[in-house]
Amino acid sequence: MTRTSSVSCCRRKKKAVRLLQVEVLDIVAAIHRGNVGKTLGHRNTLGMLQDLLRLSPTEASRRYKRALNLCPSQALTGETLAPTLSIASEAMRRGELADSQIDTIVGVVTRLPARVTIRDREEG
Protein backbone atom coordinates (compact mmCIF):
# COMPACT_ATOMS: atom_id res chain seq x y z
CA MET A 1 0.00 0.00 0.00
CA THR A 2 1.36 3.42 -0.93
CA ARG A 3 1.45 6.34 1.46
CA THR A 4 -1.28 8.10 -0.48
CA SER A 5 -3.55 5.07 -0.49
CA SER A 6 -2.85 4.47 3.21
CA VAL A 7 -3.88 8.01 4.08
CA SER A 8 -6.95 7.77 1.87
CA CYS A 9 -7.94 4.44 3.40
CA CYS A 10 -7.47 5.80 6.92
CA ARG A 11 -9.68 8.81 6.15
CA ARG A 12 -12.43 6.62 4.67
CA LYS A 13 -12.39 4.28 7.66
CA LYS A 14 -12.47 7.16 10.16
CA LYS A 15 -15.43 8.69 8.35
CA ALA A 16 -17.20 5.31 8.39
CA VAL A 17 -16.64 5.04 12.16
CA ARG A 18 -18.00 8.55 12.69
CA LEU A 19 -21.09 7.73 10.63
CA LEU A 20 -21.70 4.60 12.70
CA GLN A 21 -21.38 6.71 15.85
CA VAL A 22 -24.13 8.97 14.48
CA GLU A 23 -26.38 5.91 14.18
CA VAL A 24 -25.65 5.05 17.82
CA LEU A 25 -26.53 8.61 18.88
CA ASP A 26 -29.83 8.36 17.00
CA ILE A 27 -30.56 5.18 18.96
CA VAL A 28 -29.62 6.88 22.23
CA ALA A 29 -32.03 9.72 21.38
CA ALA A 30 -34.79 7.19 20.65
CA ILE A 31 -34.07 5.39 23.95
CA HIS A 32 -34.39 8.73 25.75
CA ARG A 33 -37.62 9.71 23.95
CA GLY A 34 -39.20 6.36 24.69
CA ASN A 35 -38.06 6.29 28.31
CA VAL A 36 -36.71 2.83 27.54
CA GLY A 37 -34.18 2.89 30.38
CA LYS A 38 -36.83 3.05 33.09
CA THR A 39 -39.00 0.52 31.28
CA LEU A 40 -36.12 -1.96 31.41
CA GLY A 41 -35.39 -1.30 35.08
CA HIS A 42 -32.62 1.28 34.83
CA ARG A 43 -32.82 4.48 36.82
CA ASN A 44 -32.61 6.57 33.65
CA THR A 45 -31.09 6.74 30.15
CA LEU A 46 -27.61 7.42 31.55
CA GLY A 47 -27.78 4.32 33.73
CA MET A 48 -28.90 2.25 30.78
CA LEU A 49 -26.04 3.55 28.63
CA GLN A 50 -23.54 2.68 31.34
CA ASP A 51 -24.88 -0.85 31.59
CA LEU A 52 -25.73 -1.49 27.94
CA LEU A 53 -22.55 -0.10 26.41
CA ARG A 54 -20.32 -0.58 29.45
CA LEU A 55 -19.48 3.09 29.60
CA SER A 56 -18.11 5.13 32.45
CA PRO A 57 -20.54 7.69 33.90
CA THR A 58 -18.51 10.43 32.19
CA GLU A 59 -18.63 8.82 28.74
CA ALA A 60 -22.33 7.94 29.11
CA SER A 61 -23.01 11.59 29.96
CA ARG A 62 -21.08 12.80 26.90
CA ARG A 63 -23.03 10.54 24.56
CA TYR A 64 -26.31 11.49 26.19
CA LYS A 65 -25.56 15.22 25.75
CA ARG A 66 -24.52 14.66 22.13
CA ALA A 67 -27.78 12.84 21.43
CA LEU A 68 -29.93 15.49 23.13
CA ASN A 69 -28.30 18.37 21.26
CA LEU A 70 -27.48 16.86 17.87
CA CYS A 71 -30.32 14.45 17.13
CA PRO A 72 -33.89 15.27 16.16
CA SER A 73 -36.37 15.24 19.04
CA GLN A 74 -40.10 14.88 19.28
CA ALA A 75 -42.72 17.41 20.38
CA LEU A 76 -45.56 16.37 22.67
CA THR A 77 -47.76 16.37 19.57
CA GLY A 78 -45.51 13.74 17.95
CA GLU A 79 -44.00 16.21 15.50
CA THR A 80 -40.31 15.68 14.75
CA LEU A 81 -38.22 18.67 15.80
CA ALA A 82 -34.87 19.69 14.33
CA PRO A 83 -31.80 19.18 16.51
CA THR A 84 -31.01 22.01 18.91
CA LEU A 85 -27.59 22.44 17.29
CA SER A 86 -28.64 21.82 13.70
CA ILE A 87 -25.51 23.13 11.98
CA ALA A 88 -23.21 20.97 14.11
CA SER A 89 -25.63 18.06 13.60
CA GLU A 90 -25.34 18.38 9.84
CA ALA A 91 -21.54 18.40 10.01
CA MET A 92 -21.59 15.40 12.37
CA ARG A 93 -23.90 13.51 9.98
CA ARG A 94 -21.43 14.11 7.16
CA GLY A 95 -18.69 12.55 9.30
CA GLU A 96 -16.79 15.83 9.58
CA LEU A 97 -16.59 16.17 13.39
CA ALA A 98 -14.61 14.16 15.89
CA ASP A 99 -16.18 13.35 19.26
CA SER A 100 -13.89 15.85 20.97
CA GLN A 101 -15.03 18.60 18.61
CA ILE A 102 -18.68 17.72 19.19
CA ASP A 103 -18.16 17.75 22.96
CA THR A 104 -16.51 21.16 22.77
CA ILE A 105 -19.38 22.60 20.71
CA VAL A 106 -22.02 21.12 23.03
CA GLY A 107 -20.10 22.28 26.13
CA VAL A 108 -19.66 25.85 24.94
CA VAL A 109 -23.19 26.26 23.67
CA THR A 110 -24.88 24.77 26.73
CA ARG A 111 -22.95 27.15 29.00
CA LEU A 112 -24.16 30.24 27.17
CA PRO A 113 -26.64 32.43 29.05
CA ALA A 114 -30.33 31.68 28.43
CA ARG A 115 -30.78 35.10 26.78
CA VAL A 116 -28.63 33.93 23.83
CA THR A 117 -31.07 32.53 21.26
CA ILE A 118 -30.59 29.28 19.39
CA ARG A 119 -30.08 31.28 16.18
CA ASP A 120 -27.36 33.36 17.85
CA ARG A 121 -25.76 30.17 19.15
CA GLU A 122 -25.67 28.63 15.68
CA GLU A 123 -24.28 31.74 14.04
CA GLY A 124 -21.74 32.49 16.78
Question: What topology emerges from the helices and strands here?
Answer:
Elements: H1 3-33, H2 36-39, H3 45-53, H4 57-70, E1 73-74, E2 80-81, H5 86-93, H6 99-110, H7 118-123
Antiparallel strand pairs: 1-2
Helix pairs in contact: 1-4, 3-4
Report on the architecture of this protein.
Strand 1 (about 75) and strand 2 (about 80) form a beta hairpin. This protein is mainly alpha-helical and about 120 residues long. The relative contact order is 0.11. Helix 1 packs across helix 4 (about 55-70) and helix 3 (about 45-55) packs across helix 4 (about 55-70). Strands 1-2 form a two-stranded antiparallel sheet. The chain is built from 7 helices and 2 strands. The longest helix is centred in the first third of the chain and has 31 residues, at about 5-35.
